[in-house]
């Protein structure tokens, strides 16, 4: 007997025997649903035999037979009626459990998000991506999908999505391109560190999405529910289907605020803030301005995260503000890092350590934030140092800046596009999917081992655009991405350590060292960050102008 849990109330299994029924009762189930028609297999006990054993065991039972490969709407309705009448928890079974899992998926379609359904069935060993379109249709068989078709469909209209759309249109203005994204507002997220440091206003980091979609690109204002890569289809909420010749996947990542116990309930008050959200970054600056003494905690979760330097940027700019006001001596700065190093590329660490010393900050490595109690002003960390027993520590705070745990979006993690860790599985040079040859990915959602920054997306977009155009014209990849990422580490107001590096931590400076040495704090790098990068982002990157972003070429060979 191989029971798989789908929810606290419903589990499924392959065919059970008469002898298994007593074990089902012992396992705590109160009812059974049989989804396998009698006579389907020679060695199969019929329903009457299972029902008799269920009566002896004190279990209620229902017979909802479903023909293999033919789950009808009436079958789903009958399954729903059985669930409504039977006591819970219920065990449903068929030959392998697939029909039962499918019925449950359709029954739950209008009760929970599709990613939750796909995740639950996947964890149980049943892949429901093949029926995702029907789940999106509330569990009912789609009759009119209203398909649209484009040569290139782009999922996500963040920095990566709009940039690659603009780069594609710059190469072929007649190319049929659609971008799918439900958001009304597009954010310049690198600017939120500056908002939290009192340099930018929030309004400087936001523009309407409609004003940024490139000319000639169709904007589909909807959320993606699932992918059908074998059918070259993207399924939207509401079961609309968009077909494509080539697909680009770049929806960003998910900030998992719920991954820290108590965090969501106290964000934006009780001294709990984060520069990782538009509405919270101003609160960071408010707390910094008000604070004259006490303890300030800055957290960094396990990698990968968006802009790995951002958690310590908040610390440096806060420390600088307190230093300038002459209150730094009364403030205890604690940096809690789930990792074991200050920064992943060692060439930049010496300069950063000098600022850690300047602000008298305490570095606490291998500390992962587990819980926040805003009312009590305490934060609890799991401590897992190498060669030591795991422990936990609870620390009081007056202010805490939290960088939340981060994952791929739910609809990506449960899709056929994801690797075992949930990220889109690509070749790290061409950014083409390893299994589906007409799919590419860039930005924060894919699994290449580069830093997840807007600067990385700026270099990736032309690479993807070049390689898609090469594919359209019958050639293999013409461009490769070298892992470039940039992290302007704002160590004080007016100075930045400009970290630029590629795969393996290899330095990739954009300027000669006599103009700008990125390993040292400089005013030139600050000028770049404060004055030049925002207009480069809005007026160049998002418009397909590839300044300092031309992709590295590879040999071209006709297929």
UniProtKB/TrEMBL annotation:
All copies of the FAD/NAD(P)-binding domain together span: 151-270
Tell me if Transit peptide is a UniProt keyword of this record: yes
Keywords assigned by UniProt, alphabetized: FAD, Flavoprotein, Hydrolase, Oxidoreductase, Quinone, Transit peptide
Instruction: Report the cofactors.
Output: FAD
Q: One short Pfam family name for this protein?
A: Pyr_redox_2
GO biological process entries: sulfide oxidation, using sulfide:quinone oxidoreductase
EC number(s) per entry: 3.-.-.-
The molecular function GO annotations come to: FAD binding; hydrolase activity; quinone binding; sulfide:quinone oxidoreductase activity
Q: Does the keyword Flavoprotein apply?
A: yes
- Superkingdom of origin: Bacteria
InterPro entries per the record?
Answer: BLH_phosphatase-like, FAD/NAD-bd_sf, FAD/NAD-binding_dom, Prot-tyrosine_phosphatase-like, Sulphide_quinone_reductase
Q: Which residues form the Beta-lactamase hydrolase-like protein phosphatase-like domain?
A: 2-109
Q: What is this protein called?
A: Beta-lactamase hydrolase-like protein
The scientific name of the source species is Thalassobacter stenotrophicus
Gene it is expressed from:
blh_1
């Amino acid at each position: 007997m191989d029971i798989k849990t789908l929810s606290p109330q419903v589990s499924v299994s392959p065919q059970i025997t008469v002898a298994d029924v007593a074990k089902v009762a012992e396992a705590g189930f109160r009812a059974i649903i049989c989804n396998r028609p009698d006579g389907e297999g020679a060695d199969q006990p019929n329903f009457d035999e299972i029902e008799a054993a269920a009566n002896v065991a004190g279990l209620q039972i229902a017979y909802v037979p479903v023909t293999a490969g033919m789950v009808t709407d009436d079958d789903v309705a009958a399954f729903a009626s059985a669930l409504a009448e039977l006591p819970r928890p219920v065990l449903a079974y068929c030959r392998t459990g697939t029909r039962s899992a499918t019925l449950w998926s359709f029954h739950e379609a209008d009760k929970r998000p599709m990613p939750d359904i796909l995740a639950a069935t996947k964890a149980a060993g049943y892949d429901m991506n093949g029926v995702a379109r029907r789940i999106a249709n509330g569990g009912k068989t789609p009759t009119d999908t209203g398909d649209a078709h484009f040569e290139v469909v782009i999922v996500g209209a963040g920095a990566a999505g709009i940039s690659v759309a603009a780069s594609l249109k710059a190469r072929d203005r007649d190319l049929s391109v659609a971008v799918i994204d439900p958001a009304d507002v597009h954010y310049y997220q690198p600017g939120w560190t500056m908002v939290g440091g009192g340099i930018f206003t929030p309004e400087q980091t936001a523009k309407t999405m409609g004003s940024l979609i490139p000319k000639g690109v169709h904007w589909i204002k909807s959320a993606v529910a699932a992918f059908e890569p074998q059918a070259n289809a993207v399924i939207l909420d509401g079961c609309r289907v968009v077909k494509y010749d080539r697909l680009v996947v770049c929806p960003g990542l998910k900030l998992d605020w719920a991954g820290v116990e108590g965090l969501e309930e106290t964000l934006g008050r009780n001294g709990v803030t984060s520069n990782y959200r538009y509405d919270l970054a101003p609160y960071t600056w408010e707390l910094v301005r008000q604070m004259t003494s006490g303890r300030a905690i800055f957290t960094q979760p396990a990698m990968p995260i968006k802009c790995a330097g951002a958690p310590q940027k908040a610390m440096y700019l806060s420390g600088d503000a307190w230093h300038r006001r002459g209150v730094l001596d009364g403030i205890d700065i604690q940096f809690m890092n789930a990792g074991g190093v200050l920064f992943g590329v060692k060439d930049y660490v010496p300069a950063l350590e000098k600022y850690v010393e300047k602000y008298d900050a305490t570095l606490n490595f291998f500390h992962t934030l587990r819980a926040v109690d805003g009312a009590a002003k305490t934060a609890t960390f799991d401590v897992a140092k190498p060669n030591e027993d795991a422990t936990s520590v609870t620390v009081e705070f007056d202010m805490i800046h939290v960088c939340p745990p981060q994952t791929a979006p739910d609809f990506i993690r449960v899709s056929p596009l994801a690797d075992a860790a949930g990220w889109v599985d690509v070749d790290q040079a061409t950014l083409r999917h390893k299994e589906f040859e007409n799919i590419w990915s860039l930005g924060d959602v894919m699994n290449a081992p580069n830093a997840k920054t807007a600067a990385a997306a700026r270099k990736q977009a032309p690479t993807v655009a070049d390689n898609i155009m090469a594919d359209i014209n019958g050639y293999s990849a013409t461009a490769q991405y070298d892992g470039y990422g940039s992290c302007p580490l704002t160590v004080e107001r007016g100075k930045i350590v400009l970290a630029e590096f590629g795969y393996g931590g290899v330095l990739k400076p954009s300027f000669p060292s006599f103009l700008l040495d990125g390993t040292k704090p400089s005013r030139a790098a600050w000028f770049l960050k404060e004055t030049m990068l925002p207009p480069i982002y809005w007026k160049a990157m998002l418009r397909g102008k590839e300044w300092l972003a031309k992709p590295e070429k590879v040999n071209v060979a006709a297929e």
